[in-house]
Amino acid sequence: MRLTLSRPTQWLQALREHLAMVLGLGLLATLCLSWSPIALVLHHALPRRWGQAVGRRVATACFRFYLGALRAACGCRFDLDALDGLAGQGPMIVVANHPSLLDALLLVSRLPNAVCIMKAGLMDNPLFGAGAQLAGYVRNDNLLHVILQCRSELRKGTQVIVFPEGTRTTDWPMNRVPASIGLLAVRSQVPVQTVLLDFSSPYLGKAWPLWRRPELPLRVSARLGRRFEPPSDARTFTDELQSHFDQALKNAQVASANPCPSRPPPTSS
């Protein structure tokens, strides 16, 4: 909840937030569009193994730069240190909740040898598609293909990032986890590490229009949740995963001094 400010201060704050929105979205689009033609060429010119390594490292570097720019220019605060230890811990499935459009960027910025399971539409998007294909990200349009490709990447030592909700959260604290995530975990036989993403506001969530200004300062944190050993039963694992996320996210909401509402409050913009 915001403090009551004088009208001139409110105008200045609104102006700052509008400028932050334009800068943030504009910079992201610029980075992606600048990299896309290069990634497209490298995708066809480099051996697949080399291309994937380059694509993943560049994605991590670009998203680190982007988040750093948001810190410096927009006053955003990102507490992602909990993710740093995961990078050297070998193959695992990293499962996170999905409150915002920024979620994949946050995880990739700290996991340099990771692939995301992405919507097929995003893989074909001119803004993200070429870079995602170069990095070897996995299309989600065929479950068998997803399982086989993820298992192949995990056997190479890669980490796989999954947002099991399939879309940004609409049913707080987390959408229903599909049985397919349990099947993936059983077939892959690697540990499953949960990550809990907390936002100070529902910025760029499902109910937040793209061009709606953020509420600054935006605060984002990543917490490590439970790590599951390779499961043997898909249904039981899926139920335990759902229960863990629901409880952990509810506990964080109750403990927060500035809880994030499930939908953005109305503003004048």
- What is the CA–CA distance across the termini? 17 Å
Oligomer: single chain
Number of strands: 7
User: Which consecutive residue ranges, at least 5 long each, have pLDDT under 50?
Assistant: 261-269
Task: Give the helix/strand class.
Answer: alpha/beta
CA-based shape:
globular
Average predicted confidence as pLDDT: 90
User: Number of helical segments?
Assistant: 8
Order of helices and strands: HHEEHEHHEHEHEEH
Radius of gyration of CA atoms, rounded to a whole number: 19 Å
Helical residues, percent: 40-55%
- Major sheet description: 7 strands, mixed
List the main descriptive attributes of the protein structure presented here.
single chain, 269 residues, alpha/beta, seven-stranded mixed beta sheet, 8 helices, 7 strands, 13% strand, disordered C terminus
Description of the molecule:
With 269 residues, this protein is of the alpha/beta class. It is built from eight helices and seven strands; from the N terminus they run ααββαβααβαβαββα. Strands 1-7-6-2-5-3-4 form a seven-stranded mixed sheet, with helices on both faces. Helix 1 (7-45) packs antiparallel against helix 2 (48-74) and helix 2 packs across helix 5. The longest helix has 39 residues, at 7-45. It is globular, with a radius of gyration of 19 Å. Residues 261-269 have low confidence and may be disordered.
